[in-house]
Amino acid sequence: MANHSPITDREIYEVALSALQSQLDQTNEKMASIRARLGMRGPGRPAASTDGARPTPKKRTMSRSGRARISAAQKARWAATKSSRPNRRSQPKAKA
Fold first, then answer.
1. What is the dihedral of CA 16, 17, 23, 28, to 10 degrees?
2. Would the pTM of this model clear 0.85, i.e. be above it?
3. Which long-range contacts (CB under 8 A, 24 or more apart) does 78-83 make?
4. pLDDT per residue over 16-45, tens digit each?
């Protein structure tokens, strides 16, 4: 009679985990194939809505030079506005 060592719980779990990982890989491959047929790029892309509404676009970022141009233009507008108004500080307030 052969002396066989009993299979431990750890070995059973390792085999089960390996089989589940294999199934997961196959499922992911099938999902990628379906996404490719639908024109989707991957799981990071938002799903298309069924009610026709568009997903919110990504936040736009502005370069440092772009912000500087906008700031300079706004300062020029303020300077033009301030120069066209009479200087109110030079006139003393009338006391009632």
1. 170
2. no
3. none
4. 999 999 999 999 999 888 888 887 665 666
**15's tokens:** 């085999």
Q: Token pair for residue 6?
A: 């009993």
CA-closest candidate to residue 31, choices 42, 17, 21: 42
Whole-number Å distance between alpha carbons of 40 and 48: 9
> Of 94 and 57, which is predicted with more confidence?
57
Cα 88 from Cα 37, distance rounded (Å): 69
Task: Encode 55-71 in three state secondary structure.
Answer: CCCCCCCCCHHHHHHHH
Average pLDDT, the chain: 81
Q: Which residue is listed with tokens 């500087």?
A: 68
